Model the fold of this input.
Amino acid sequence: MKRLIFSALASMVILATQAQPSVETERQYLSGHGADDMVQWDFRCTDGRNSGQWTKIGVPSCWELQGFGTYQYGMRFYGKATPEGIADEKGHYRTTFQLPEAWRGRQILLTFEAVFTDARVTINGRKAGSGLHQGGFTRFQFDVSDRVFFGKKANRLEVEVSKESADPQVNLAERRADYWNFGGIWRPVFIVAKPALNIQRIAIDAKADGRIRAEVNLNRAVPGSTVGVEIVDEGGKTIAHSNRFAVGSDHTLIDFMVSHPRLWNAEQPYRYTAVFSLRDSGGRLLHVERQKFGFRTIEYRHTYNGDAEDGVFINGKKVIFKGVNRHSFRPETGRTLSKAKNIEDVKLIKSMNMNAVRLSHYPADPEFLDACDSLGLYVECELPGWHWAHGTIVGSQLAEEMVTRDCNHPSIIFWSNGNEGGFNYDLEPVFHRFDLQQRVVLYPWANRNGFETKHYRSWGETAEYMRQKEIFMPTEFLHGLYDGGHGAGLKDYWHLMMSNPRCAGGFLWDLMDQGVVRTDMNGLVDCMGNFASDGIVGPHMEKEGSYYTIREIWCPVQISREGNRLKVANHYDFTSLKDCRFTYQYVAMPRYGESATKVLAQGSLPSPDINPHGEGYITLPQQPEGTLLVTVCNPQGEEIYTWRFAEEFIADKPVVAQQLQPHETDTTTTVAVGGRHYTFSKKNGCLQSVTVANRIISFANGPRFVAAKRSDRSDDGFYNHDDKEAFKKKTDYITYADQGTFDGFSWNDSTLVATYRHGSLSQVEWTFMADGSVRLTAHWYFNGVVDLLGITFDYPEQQVKGKRWVGNGPYRVWQNRLDGPQYGYWTTAYNDPIPGETFEYPEFKGYFSTVNWMQLETKEGVIGIRQPNAYVGIYQPRDGRDHLLYTLPETGVSLLRAIPAVRNKVNTTDLNGPSAQPYWAEGSDSITAILSFE
Done:
């Protein structure tokens, strides 16, 4: 009998527990979480591809990528609110879902993370909330508590999505822009269920001194209620709790201290969870809401306001922002991403030793911001818009939606109210109304609120802008295009910017080429010409040369070698180098024609106790001969950079051939040596061909002297104001004609000497070696201001298969982008990518530095270059089809004293700093290399 009573009581307890309504916030997804787990909904598109009939579509998605509607790029209709020919299809969505019976009596919020662009929503045949949301990039919710069924009865959700907004100002702000315009429910849809009386919204301000304030708003007034909060660390331990704070009407402000919290910064990102509890007047628990946050203090200091110095300070430390602009984008899914892809982007940014990101030109997925919080990036979070502003009514709603969703992310340091003149200043109070932390509101491109953010200034203009009293922080600079911009000029800009105490850093434009898969064009990846080809990486994150340049220049541990010591500079803001790990290797690089590298010695180096912004030294162990590699890992164990210091190669000393017997004809001189036959023209003194074992290697027509300048320059190197067509020539290059004539051959022992008169090239010496190689020395006399200078040979490009070399690589260099490529042994197969269309990296063609030796592998044999005292040019870099960067002279296989700089999308080469200036050639010079043929 006792057992029966006990069992009955236990059952009653269980039933009572089950009947107890949940006090937690719960979520049920009606769509997938992102691009990787879309859920099929019924769908009908009104126009374009696959329109006019009901079918299925994955949600969330951009419908163009799912085979519907019409692809459209915003710039094609720039400045026109309702232009003729615009893609204005609508998408009709419907789905059914069930809600748990246990949710009856709770507040039910139908939530859309983002929809392009107008969304009309009905649920069970009734309008949801206002029924309409305008604006494509922010989260919006409708309270549908009185419109839904619970238990087994299904709910019917219908959404009409208009790609074009009925509000012309929304179209101007969000869709007439330099990016792809998609349509669809492109971020997730879900139901949020809360207790009937609940915490509606929380805004936290947690300072570095441990003071935490939180503004807590309820969904309705609860007389006599209180709110308290517990602080839980990442290990799940409660470290602090507040007193109970009385709610006045429907809100309260919590204010208390936490002792010695761990602080958040991008180098040491640590988060806590605040657990808020709402209780009624009798102490009954009504609702529990959890919110992650970080303790950190942001200060924007200005000497004109009486501060001791200028800058942005996090937890009392001045921070320099090394940032990039980032769109939410993938070629196969458009703007629809997933948690994994958002994390992938954060890791990509951090891998370049960046510490900041600007969300251009709209707020990112919550998962991206969570990754910035947890992995460590500073964020500028932007109200949607490009060159036009939202109207005040719609704009106020969008600003509220953005700030209320994102205000508790510790990574967010700045808000921005539009972009490049698309500013509605009436919206600024909305930011402050909902942001308890009162973060500064930036106006990218403008000078306002203590920040000069001007975009795309030249090097000299940048210096001028930094003379102003405001903090200088360009929110876009060094505009990328194809292989230009980004790293090209960054070293000059960064040196200039860091020399001014009012500079807080800046944000490069931009992270990734926005090449979209055209499902209407057989899967073509379309960057819309030069419009969307601005990335540091390609559409599928293919690393371009600038990736490595940025990674080196912005590395927080800078190392140079001074004999048997390493000079180490700590550019971290918070991290001591004693917490980093240093290792070394001495490596023997392959000698000419070989491929094996050999580790001669390796080990760990002591981690120097160097504080942020300090310098110190590490003594190297006894050094063998070889290239020194020093690898630095951050406190998380991730490699941030490997510095390489090239060994001093012992120069090969081939034996000079003896008793040569050249074969002479009326038109040629042929030298047979070491199984090779070198044939020279008596007409121009050039090498005509090389024969190896009866195989002709078509390496010929050189050396020819080559000197070229940008076509818009005068002969003095400045912009040619006398040429009315100069502006149109700014990406073309013109060669100087060599006026000289060949004056004949002569012999000096085993050296064939070609002499020239009255021109630039004066003498060429060919010293033949017993092994069949030849040492070439070309002398010239030239005065002039040039962008390219040296000697060149012809070789048919279609015969080339690949190259391998010891030198800096595997990426090419430009005069204003020498950093990044590292000394080592490299191999690349021939490729000829068209910028903005094909994304094969590293590019085969271009200019290569610090080459010890290189072999061109061809269908005819192997062409070798050893110990050149010059850059090695392998043909010339290819520009995009529109030739917006350069049209360089054809230089075949060349040895160059001067190589061109590369411009960016906005500024010509010489506007990008000292290293981009033309080369002033003065008088006599020469180039030497050993050529081999096999």
